[in-house]
Amino acid sequence: IQKRWRGYYVRKYIHNYYALKKYLEAISVNNEIVRNELQEYAEMKEKEEKRKDIEKKEKEKQYQARKMHYLLSTEKIAGVYNSPFRKSPDPMELLLRKSKPLSHRQQQMKSPFAYELYDWPTCKRPPTFSTAQPLPPIGRQKPQGPFRDTAEVLQQRYKPLEPTLRVAASINSPLEKAREEMKKEEWRNCIHDNEFLPFSSYHKNEKYDPSIHRSVKYGQETYGITHFREVQPKKWVADKVSHCIF
Hints:
Structural class: mainly alpha
Number of strands: 0
Number of helices: 7
Shape: elongated
Largest sheet: none
Helix content: 40-55%
Order of helices and strands: HHHHHHH
Radius of gyration: 59 Å
């Protein structure tokens, strides 16, 4: 009895056969409507794509016709697309007649200082200044691991140079350095630098200063001309000159 009652109750109130059949029919009708709409949309998109392709091809043809306008036939000479062996001219010939040739564009070189020189006095355009503010610093978190603090690393990186004594000291000793300075000073303050006078007659009337170590005036010595040995009779022990006898 319970089995029969459950079957009857489910078929009548829960799984109604006629309501389910009506629901499935409504779904099939809705699906058919959606399919028709999707098919119409696909056909419309296909037609639009074809129209765009045709327009693109037409624009390319017109551009090529304007670019090859020099191939147009004249009154004296027939063009490439207007062969005399044809009964009618080529469609490209007709397109060449309708189209205009491409104009040569003159590229104007603009100086980077043009606005600074001409716009500021005439005030044609307001001066533009960069008002962009710098971006705020990124709030980075400390990386996980045994890493040092960023401020400490930057302080170590940009600390002032502290050279050792070996690097800071000079290679030369202070004595050698002082000697070099003295040599430079003597060479710079040299008082014996006579001006060069190229004329040979300048030194004829110049008198020589006597030497400190000699009592005689400066002149040519007679050694090698009058005698070959210096003779001092005052220092002689005997009156005669000693001779070596072999």
